[in-house]
Specification:
Length: 562
């Protein structure tokens, strides 16, 4: 539980502004020092409405913003699985527009306008509590005497400004990075009707709306699930053009600030996880179960849909290969004869798999179509695997030779070292990293996850003073290039924040590595080297009870143990 400074006129040495700790309460008061430290009334200011002690603005406003951002960008706010399954099975053409529209409506559906109005109210009420001299001193700045007298007042105003800017930056990043307005489309009437039915069923089964008093008997995770259902209904209503607040929610008297208060509890208990662009792309790629086949102007027929199952990467590649064989390639190109160095002219068969004997990637029309097709969205590396090549540079060579424009890189890929690499958006401007030419910055996913976690969980002062972070001109913070983000369980793709730890340098990371512990176990004899297998194995006959504590300490001096 976070502790705040006691708001007392006895201890305060200069004017400060305090507010009610209940989110949404507009009670705000200027706290003045007592004359001679004992003369005056209201020595311990309280909220007149809730009758609880006030807290200073600069200590509480950051918690409200943390709760609001955790609510806006929680993974639970992404489209629910039951809705995705319906769209996937009934209206597969609308899967992309549905996901893009849902993500676009998340912030409004979860209460962003209310946060904006509340921050405006706090800012205006804060200024009304100040005298004209104090406002002039804040505007004047510098090191003048009046400015020093009102240092705490200025600090509170700076904190409100910073937190308000923080909210706006996240909302701007959401609109520019996480959503693509060009993909937004109106939903069909059938889908809209289903969304209305889904809302009714969800409201009927929500335990908190039925009886809010039952919340005390529920586990925290169950409470979060019910609140997420309510918030997702708000997003769903926005998606079909309705007010986010339904009548049922208003009758239950569950205000947006009640939800923010609950989310602050979820945030402090680490139950809220921020979603990223990668999560959205994964939803689209996993649930886009059908791919449109090319519809040519020269062909009066529209070819059938073809299922691509993405359960495993190998299955996906085989499905793509089969799909390519079903294309009407004669519409795309009537001439499939090419000149190959050392072989002369050969005729390709586009209805067979690409191979050394059938090098389809050397045909301009074939390579251009497969690379630029928006539904397939294949990279050089994927085309390399489809063609059975070892190096993706071959595909790049032929693209350059045919003057096929390079697509803008996006998404993620698994690098040879076993890590997940992300193509960062253009808004990601690490001061120590520069993109090469037109390419985007590539960053390991676990490093980005740690950066996002530190941005959300740290105050502005903590971010400024953090020795491992570097900031930019836009108020964003990044992990320095020399720092190492370590996987605690040694699984390179397990990038949950609880499995990550930040070290200052590679040398510090090596000093705290598991190798000293393994070395100690080898010295003790718990791990043995098997000459028959040429491997280290566990000694099943080893028993610590045969050794005294002092003997163990003597054998493994450099290793710390409990």
């Amino acid at each position: 539980m976070k502790t705040y400074s006691n708001v007392s006129r006895k201890t305060v040495r200069e004017d400060r502004i305090a507010i009610c700790p209940i989110f949404g309460c507009e009670s705000i008061k200027r706290v003045k020092p007592l004359k001679f430290r004992f003369l005056g009334f209201g020595k311990y200011p309280k909220c007149r409405k809730h009758r609880i002690p006030l807290v200073y603005v600069d200590e509480r406003i950051g918690d409200f913003v943390d709760a609001a951002l955790a609510c806006f960008f929680d993974k639970a706010g992404l489209p629910p699985n039951d809705l995705l399954e319906y769209v996937k099975s009934q209206v597969p053409d609308e899967i992309t527009s549905f996901v893009e529209g849902w993500v676009y409506c998340i912030t409004v559906g979860r209460g962003a306008p209310i946060v904006s109005r509340y921050m405006d109210t706090i800012s205006n009420t804060y200024l009304k509590q100040l005298t004209k001299k104090q406002i002039k001193a804040i505007k004047r700045g510098g090191t003048s005497k009046p400015n020093l007298v009102n240092k705490a007042i200025k600090s509170g105003m700076d904190e409100i400004t910073f937190q308000y800017t923080r909210v706006l930056k996240h909302l701007r990043a959401h609109s520019e990075v996480l959503t693509d307005r060009q993909k937004l489309q109106a939903l069909s009437k059938n889908l809209q009707n289903y969304l209305k039915e889904w809302q009714k069923n969800t409201l009927e089964n929500n335990k908190i709306i039925k009886s809010p008093e039952n919340r005390q008997e529920m586990a925290l995770e169950e409470i979060k699930n019910n609140y997420d259902q309510i918030l997702n209904i708000g997003t769903c209503r926005c998606l079909i053009g309705l007010d986010p607040e339904s009548k049922e929610i208003k009758k239950a008297k569950l205000t947006a600030f009640d939800r923010f208060s609950a989310y602050y509890e979820f945030y402090t208990e680490r139950l809220a996880t921020k979603f990223t662009k990668l999560d959205i792309e994964k939803i689209c790629s996993e649930n886009k179960s059908v791919i449109k086949v090319l519809k040519s102007k020269d062909s009066s027929k529209e070819l059938n849909y073809y299922d691509i199952k993405a359960s495993t990467s190998s299955c996906k590649l085989e499905a793509i290969k089969d799909y390519l064989k079903s294309i009407n390639w004669q519409v795309i190109s009537k001439n499939w004869t090419i000149q190959v160095k050392g072989q002369g002219s050969i005729t390709l068969n586009p209805y067979k798999s690409c191979s050394n004997q059938n090098p389809l990637y050397k045909h301009k029309k074939w390579l251009e179509w497969i690379y630029l097709n928006e539904d397939l969205n294949l990279s050089d590396r994927t085309i390399t695997k489809i063609c059975g090549l070892k190096n993706h540079k071959s595909i790049r060579y032929w693209r350059n030779k045919f003057n096929i424009q390079t697509k803008e890189e996006s998404g993620f890929y698994f690098n040879p070292d076993g890590y997940i690499d992300l193509y960062m958006p253009k808004t990601y401007k690490h001061p120590e990293l520069n993109p090469f030419g037109k390419k985007r910055i590539q960053r390991r996913e676990h490093i980005v996850k740690m950066e996002n976690h530190l941005m959300i969980s740290s105050t502005s002062r903590e971010l400024d003073l953090h020795p491992y972070l570097i900031g930019d001109d836009n108020g964003m913070y990044y992990i320095k290039t020399g720092c190492i983000v370590h996987h605690i369980n040694y699984r390179k793709r397990d990038n949950y924040i609880d499995n990550l730890w930040l070290y200052a340098s590679n040398s510090e990371h090596n000093n705290t590595n598991i190798n000293p512990c393994l070395s100690g176990l080898i010295k003790l004899g718990q791990i043995l080297f098997s000459q028959s297998n040429n491997k280290y194995i566990l000694n099943s006959n080893f028993d610590y009870r045969n050794l005294e504590s002092e003997q163990i300490k003597e054998i493994i001096k450099p290793v710390e143990f409990f």
